[in-house]
Amino acid sequence: MTTLDTHELTYTEVDTWVDVLPEAELSTEIGVPALVGNAPVAVFRTWDGELHAVSNLDPKTGASVIARGIVGTRGDVPTVASPLYKHVFDLRTGRCLDDDSLALARYQARVREGVIQVRAAG
Q: Which positions make up the signal peptide (predicted)?
C-alpha cells in the first residue's frame, strides 16, 4: 500500500518571487518600501542601474525607515544611510560600514516582464 505524503508546503519551502512595482516607477537612488511575505524590504536602483533589496528595518531602532535613507557611495561601494542614526550600509551585502555589530538583511531582486520582484526569504 502506498501512503501519500500529506505534508503541506509552507511559505518558506517555496521559491517565491513577489512583485513589488513596475520597473518604470522606481527612480534612481530613491528607495521604495515593500512588504515581501512578512518582511519589510527597501528596494533601490543605484546610478549604475543595479537593483538592491535590503531590510527596511533600521537595526539600531527597529523602525521601518531604510527606504527613506540617503543613497550614495563610499569609494565604489553603493550605500544607503539610515535617516535615524546615519549609519551607512553596503547595499550589496547589508553590512554596516560604520559599526560591525549592525547589518541589514539582504534580498535578491530582479526584473521580470517589466516588474521588479524580490525573492521572499526562505
A: none
Does 82 map to a domain? yes
Mean pLDDT of 32-56: 97
Q: How far apart are CA 118 and CA 20, in angstroms?
A: 7
Print burial letters for 85-100: b (CB count within 10 Å at least 16), e (below 16).
eebbbbbeebbbbeee
Domain that holds residue 38: 27-119
User: Is residue 4 helix, strand or coil?
Assistant: coil
Cell numbers for 61: 531602532
User: Grid coordinates standing for 112?
Assistant: 521580470
The pLDDT tens digits of the residues spanning 77-89 come to: 999 999 999 999 9
Task: Write out the three cell numbers for 33.
Answer: 518600501
